[in-house]
Amino acid sequence: MHYKLACCSIALLVLVPTVIAQNPVRTGDNEQASTQANEKSSAALESQLACRNTPEPAKAVEALQQKGMVERRSYLNVDSLNYFRARQPLTVWGFKVVSVFGFDFYPRIFERGPGTAPPITLGVVVSASVTTVKSTLKRLGLENTNVQRAAEPELDTKRTKSILLTDIYCEER
Q: Could you give the CA distance from residue 66 to residue 60 in angstroms, rounded to a whole number?
């Protein structure tokens, strides 16, 4: 019995380092995959926010939720527009996305407030001024995209300096 244990121990000492050498842990691959997922999500959002077609907020938010890029539940509902915090770095046209918002007649994702429903809407809140966002979109030829000062309240009340927040959104035509 002692001989069998010694043989197995020796085999483990020889095999384990070989297996580890053949299958190294690749942290760079995970980071690269994450970056590619973020880039694809950003491109998909930009495509819908360009307002060339009616936006599909349910499809967009659900895809972002499945990738873990936005929170599963909305944290704010203003006039039936539901806001979902960004959990991972996400950008649109170079602007950092703070949250994604929208409304669609899809009750599983979007809660509806009292009163008349808004049009189907998809948008993002970015940390930049309205002037900066408008000039960037104009330079890109995206005059159909709506831009306004964010309706969302300041996210971090501990800051002494206020954050400029701007909505970029597209509504049903």
A: 10
φ/ψ of 169, rounded to 5, equals -150, 165
**pTM, full prediction:** 0.76
CB distance 125 to 148 below 8 Å? no
* Neighbouring residues of 75: CB distance < 8 A, sequence distance ≥ 6: 83, 84, 85, 99
Domains of the chain, residue spans: 3-171
**Helix, strand and coil in the chain, % to nearest 5:** 35, 20, 40
CB atoms under 10 Å from CB of 44, counted, come to: 16
Q: What is the pLDDT of residues 107-123, one digit of tens each?
A: 789 988 888 889 999 99
Q: What is the mean pLDDT of each run of 10 residues along the chain (173 residues)?
A: 46 40 50 70 95 94 96 92 95 97 88 88 96 96 92 56 86 87
Instruction: Judge whether 168 and 137 are in contact, CB under 8 Å.
Output: yes
Q: Which structure tokens are listed for 171? A: 């509504």
**Cα-based torsion angle of the residue sequence 102, 105, 107, 110 in order, rounded to the nearest 10 degrees:** 10
Using the structure block, give the residue that is written with the tokens 């053949």. 22
Long-range contacts of 21-27 (CB under 8 A, 24+ apart): none
Structure tokens that stand for 26 in this block: 């690749």
